[in-house]
Design goal:
The complex is a heterodimer. By secondary structure, chain A is an alpha+beta fold. Helices cover 37% and strands 29% of the residues of chain A. The longest helix of chain A is centred in the first third of the chain and has 22 residues. By secondary structure, chain B is an alpha/beta fold. In chain B, 35% of the residues lie in helices and 19% in strands. Chain B contains 5 helices and 6 strands. The chains are: A alpha+beta, B alpha/beta.
Chain lengths: 140, 117
């Protein structure tokens, strides 16, 4: 299999559509025959990242690069940025609104979950400019 | 147990995917916070929730959850039924409250999340 690149625009104004990119990548990985446990890890981490883009940054662009050795997914937004990454990484810490909590998110588990399920996570962020989260998954 | 047994035990209504009621369920999770659901991988699990929006279906899809039960008599939105149907995910509804519904399934032998023994 050659490497494959998939790009998705994540709309920031429609919470009900959040997760469509994660769902599409999950189905592609399944079609390509990747192991189910790996697919589940990728899907969960991607979904958390996608939800974060919608609730904190008015959407953004998801790019998934799939090769036989590595699956790499980047989430680029032009949102407010993360002022304190160490604080944002703490389980239970969240800046999400009450409205978002009513929708079942904002428990402060998003970034910790992404880190837990990905083999490597890199966050590049500038306050007032935006954030890019890169998740990497090694294929055993 | 099978999804069909959950329908009987919880006197549940089936909103979609009646053809999948013979799927085996090995674990259960009762939760309204989807982030908490996403924190623990479970195998062949049922999700009991009071959260009525399409993200409960999306969460189940990402986790490979095999069945969703809406508690306290909540009705799914048309968008939820559509998404659950697309993903072949049986969506059930029970009049029972979360605590009772979880208790009934636990007493009937369904294990808690992560408990594989």
């Amino acid at each position: 299999m050659d490497s494959l690149e998939l790009t998705y625009q994540v709309p920031g104004d429609d919470f009900s559509r959040a997760g469509e990119a994660s769902s599409a990548v999950k189905r592609t990985l399944k079609t390509l025959g990747f192991p189910p446990d790996l697919i589940r890890r990728i899907a969960i981490a991607m979904y958390e990242a996608e939800i974060n883009m919608v609730i904190h940054a008015d959407g953004g662009v998801v790019t998934a690069r799939i090769s036989p050795e590595l699956v790499e997914v980047s989430f680029a937004d032009v949102g407010p940025g993360i002022p304190d990454i160490d604080l944002a990484m703490q389980e239970g810490y969240s800046t999400a609104s009450e409205q978002v909590r009513d929708l079942g998110f904002g428990a402060g588990m998003g970034l910790p979950n992404m880190k837990k399920y990905a083999d490597d996570m890199t966050i590049t962020t500038t306050v007032g400019v935006g954030t890019t989260v890169l998740l990497q998954f090694q294929i055993a | 147990m099978k999804i069909r047994d959950i329908v009987t035990l919880l006197d549940a209504k089936v909103f979609c995917c009646e053809d999948r009621l013979d799927t085996e369920v090995h674990a259960g999770c009762g939760c309204d916070m989807m982030s908490d659901v996403l924190a623990y991988v479970k195998d062949q699990a049922v999700l009991l929730t009071g959260l009525v929006n399409p993200q409960s279906i999306r969460t189940a899809e990402m986790m490979d959850i095999v069945c969703i039960v809406l508690v306290r008599g909540k009705e799914p939105t048309p968008a939820m039924i559509e998404l659950a149907t697309e993903r072949h995910l049986p969506l059930l509804g029970t009049q029972k409250r979360m605590f009772s519904a979880c208790g009934i399934l636990y007493s009937a032998g369904l294990l808690q999340e992560g408990d594989q023994s």
